[in-house]
Amino acid sequence: MDSLALVILNYNGQSFLAKFLPAVLAHADGHPVYVADSASTDGSVAFLRAHFPTVRVIELARNEGYAGGYNRALDYIRTHEAPFDYYALINSDIDVTPGWLSPILSVMASSPTVAACQPKIRSYQQRDLFEHAGAAGGFVDWLGYVFCRGRVFATFEADQGQYDDNRPVFWATGACLFVRAKVFHQTGGFDASFFAHMEEIDWCWRVQRLGYEVWTCGQSVVYHVGGGTLPKSNPHKTYLNYRNSLFMLYKNWPADGRLWLRIFLRLVLDGLSSLLFVKVGQWRDVWAIIRAHFAFYAHLPQLNQQRRALRQQQTHAVSLFPRSIVWSYFGQGKKTYRDIVDNRK
């Protein structure tokens, strides 16, 4: 039995497959490579069958985003292919490097409590800089805002070896995410209602509530184009990020009576953040933030059910970063992870 399946979820990404799939195959160390296609209309499936016959193609009936797509793909592999110990979920716009797999697999195998791990994510365009999606491992502050070692908001550090360690983090990026198959299926996978963006952070939060750990591996590095399916400036991406952040916070926040205070503060801070879009005339993004909050309120019945179920299943307490990343970054001028976590500055 092979221990690892490398799985790429594709939606109209033929150009990325042509560019980056050869490296994945070259550095797969003999592990099987799957491409799960989300009903692409750009000829991706025919292209794969013609040019990459060793790739195992899974044809999904429709595009259900990152969350639903991977849920269906990994269920298919478990049911119709073979059992694996681990899955590597790889974006189609990831450029892998020689020897990238073995350090991460060593971390995953080090303890049965390690449920997920990521490599360092650098920018494909500026290869010495960390990339937005995950950098060297992520954290969540007490208001649900996310940040990374190597990337805080719009500040991207150069990779100078400062994050070459292997260590636990709060979340690992979905751009290149290794998961323990047993835990993924045990938890029901990603929350499909997220569609895309932050579903991996929600999943990392949930697995930690069950006593598992999430790690980052500094000995492995990949490069990420970013915005392959939804460009960074896309209003729908803005909508999903703001909405899903609220979904995640509401579902997972401990029952300490302060949840709605945080929701209110998020409403205020999200409103202030929309002024940045007003400044550059991106009115569709402003409307996306407004819609995200209304969508959150509309989903409260469903979120309440999920919140109750997660509280009943929880076995371990989970700690968030105890201060506001927004205040640290914009109010105190602390632009890097190390500056922010060192409270003496």
From TrEMBL:
Glycosyltransferase 2-like domain: residues covered: 7-148
Homology family: Belongs to the glycosyltransferase 2 family.
UniProt keyword annotations, A-Z: Glycosyltransferase, Transferase
Signal peptide: none
Descriptive protein name: Glycosyltransferase family 2 protein
Top-level taxon: Bacteria
SUPFAM superfamilies listed in its UniProt record: Nucleotide-diphospho-sugar transferases
GO MF terms held by the record: glycosyltransferase activity
PANTHER family cross-referenced by the UniProt entry: GALACTOFURANOSYLTRANSFERASE GLFT2, RHAMNOSYLTRANSFERASE WBBL
UniProt key word Transferase: yes
Glycosyltransferase is among the record's keywords: yes
